[in-house]
């Protein structure tokens, strides 16, 4: 149940960011949900492989290259989802940074106090 709620919150963040950033476009709420699912799957499957392949440059840049890996994940989601468009890698980088920020804020609302 919590996973579905996180997907819906991610979709909400995608819609909000598409309204804020001129280089990012989402056709509608259904597309935003598909984008959230695709990003979650890409982060689960593709991101560890990319991190493994880019490990030397990630070590040399003290981990800053992981920002580019996140932008590549966003561009891959752009490729796979029809109604989602990101203008360039720079917009993807900004989108991934802001999406991570929004997700941390929204997911902190889901934390249960013990």
Automatic annotation (TrEMBL):
Claim: Ion transport is one of the keywords in the record: no
Native organism taxonomy: Bacteria, Pseudomonadati, Bacteroidota, Flavobacteriia, Flavobacteriales
Organism per entry: Aequorivita echinoideorum
Superkingdom of the source species: Bacteria
Sequence intervals crossing the membrane: 28-46, 53-77, 89-110
Entry keywords, A to Z: Membrane, Transmembrane, Transmembrane helix
The keyword Transmembrane helix belongs to this UniProt entry's keyword annotation: yes
Signal sequence segment: none
Pfam families, per the entry: Phage_holin_4_2
Name the record gives this protein: Phage holin family protein
